[in-house]
Amino acid sequence: MYVLYVCLEFQRGVAHDVNVSQPSVSNTVKFAVQKIVDKAHTWIHFPHGNDELIAAMEEWQQKYIFPTVIGALDCTQIEIKKIHLGLHGHEYICRKGFASINVQATCNANEIFTSVCAECPGSVHYRRIWKSSSICQLLRESLLILFC
């Protein structure tokens, strides 16, 4: 969705429709996106502690009959432009042959994001992203407490 808003043709169309300049639309998009990013930590929340983890498991059990599940996890390649990738630009070329960022995300039983990690170049394997993620560390600690 964000890609649509940064597209120059989209911004020109909006500018024409509301009778403002394209740079005004661009500035407004930048402002709105920054506000969303600033609030992301309050909207994107992974279950912490026994009560939240148990509640998450109960949602998955009730909705999908998946016992002991607390979330769904996946990685995806988000294509980026090759320009300005610098000295380590080759690290952004994924196994599919295009420049990308490898994004890992989790969601709850209601299909709401509970974590997003968009820090890794496209060549980084999903397993490495998982093993170095704060969610993996949290689960190692929490599940030991939860199931002991």
Automatic annotation (TrEMBL):
Residues 73-140 form the DDE Tnp4 domain. Its cofactor is a divalent metal cation. GO terms for molecular function: metal ion binding. It comes from the Eukaryota. InterPro entries: HARBI1_dom. Pfam families: DDE_Tnp_4. Keywords: Metal-binding. This is DDE Tnp 4 domain containing protein.
